[in-house]
Inverse folding.
């Protein structure tokens, strides 16, 4: 990132001219920029999650307590199963694993009992 270089140069100048006040201001500025960068990264991740959720929503297929994703293209395989509770609460697709019988295990919710749909 470009501001790193600029801050570094400014710090060098402050040190060369032995200006401690200026050096402190630059260090504060660097900290503020780092906070902004972290916030920026966090927001980018949030946007990515929302974009994924939006793109995925039309493909979601509920099947009892489970959620599947319809294939992206005809003839493709549907993805899943994912936890329907987690999807309903957060929009996140958390994979579930079989836990014997009709039970599935979600990493967040422990056991889920599979309830088959009324109409197959
Ligand atoms: Zn869950």
């Amino acid at each position: 990132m470009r501001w790193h270089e600029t801050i570094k140069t400014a710090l060098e100048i402050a040190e060369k001219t032995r200006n401690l006040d200026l050096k402190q201001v630059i260090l504060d500025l660097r900290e503020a920029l780092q906070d902004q960068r972290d916030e920026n990264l966090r927001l980018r991740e949030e946007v990515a999650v929302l974009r994924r959720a939006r793109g995925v929503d039309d493909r979601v297929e509920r099947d009892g307590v489970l959620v599947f994703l319809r294939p992206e293209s005809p003839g493709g395989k549907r993805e899943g199963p994912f936890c329907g509770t987690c999807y309903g609460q957060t929009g996140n697709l958390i994979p579930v694993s079989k836990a014997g019988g009709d039970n599935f295990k979600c990493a967040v919710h422990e056991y889920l009992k599979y309830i088959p749909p009324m109409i197959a």
Summary: The helical segments are 2-16, 20-57, 84-90.
